[in-house]
């Protein structure tokens, strides 16, 4: 099969993901998953989750480029991109990934700061005198 492309998003992070049949190599921003995320084992598990659910961990190669956000949001964006690429690669995977909630983009973003407030909702400290 040919290369499959998908875009994953989370907060302000965007991940471009290319999926090709291979032997399970994962390259993100020119680094392996272990080099890219270091000791963040939970985030590594998150990124691998769609591949483990579809039993494609050793069957496909993944190349991803991430932009914006922090490493946690980027990891979630890569996970979303891998999921979308897997569904395009093999439509039958949708039945496995959809109930797990992996196809849904996590739309939560930081709320904007309002005038007169210290943060989005935090009011200035009240002073009686």
Descriptive report:
- The protein is α+β, with helices and mostly antiparallel strands.
- It is built from 4 helices and 5 strands; from the N terminus they run E-E-E-E-H-H-E-H-H.
- It has helices at residues 33-37, 41-53, 71-89, 94-97; strands spanning 4-10, 13-21, 26-28, 31-32, 60-67.
- The protein has a 5-stranded mixed beta sheet with strand order 1-2-5-3-4.
- The longest helix has 19 residues, at 71-89.
- The termini are far apart.
Reading the helices and strands in chain order gives EEEEHHEHH
**Major sheet strand order:** 1-2-5-3-4
**Overall pLDDT, averaged?**
95
- What is the CA–CA distance across the termini? 73 Å
- How big is the Rg? 18 Å
Percent of residues in β-strands: 15-25%
Quantity of strands, as a count: 5
In DSSP terms (H or I, runs of 4 or more residues), the helix count works out at 4
* CATH-derived topology: Ribosomal Protein S5, domain 2
Q: How many structurally independent domains?
A: 1
Q: Specify the biggest β-sheet.
A: 5 strands, mixed
Share of residues in helices: 25-40%
CATH architecture group name: 2-Layer Sandwich
Decide which structural class fits the backbone.
alpha+beta
What secondary-structure arrangement, pairings included, does this model have?
Layout: E1 4-10, E2 13-21, E3 26-28, E4 31-32, H1 33-37, H2 41-53, E5 60-67, H3 71-89, H4 94-97
Features:
Ribosomal Protein S5, domain 2; alpha+beta; elongated; 129 residues
Q: Gist?
A:
Helices cover 32% and strands 22% of the residues. By secondary structure, the chain is α+β, with helices and mostly antiparallel strands. The protein has one domain (4-97): Ribosomal Protein S5, domain 2 (2-Layer Sandwich), CATH 3.30.230.
